[in-house]
Write a structure and sequence with these properties.
By secondary structure, the chain is an alpha+beta fold. It has one domain: Copper resistance protein K (Thrombin, subunit H, Beta Barrel), CATH 2.40.10. Helix content is 23%, strand content 33%. The strands form 2 sheets. Strands 1-2-3-4 form a 4-stranded antiparallel sheet, with no helix packed on it. It has a 4-stranded antiparallel sheet with strand order 5-6-7-8, with no helix packed on it. It is elongated, with a radius of gyration of 19 Å. It starts with a helix and ends with a strand.
Length: 96
Amino acid sequence: MKKSLIAMILSCSVGALTAVYAAEPPAEKLELTDGSTLFLHPDGTGRMVDAHGKPMSMADGMEMKLKDGRMVMMKNKQVWITYGPPGKGKTILKTD
């Protein structure tokens, strides 16, 4: 009886956690020219991993170039993306 109660409680808690994580939208994956990857979360924040999948720190204000030619920059733990030609494009906060 005691083992079945523990098993039932454990299965309910695993089910609840699965529902919580399923509700979180996935992060957008942006590949940089140096082989690293930037994962952009829906709230505008991001995290970065190197070519081997190890977490990297991002310096504030340092521009990084994406494989598609766009430039991205971290400022105050949020990702800003430049659209258009270098120096003439528009920089916006990436939140969508």
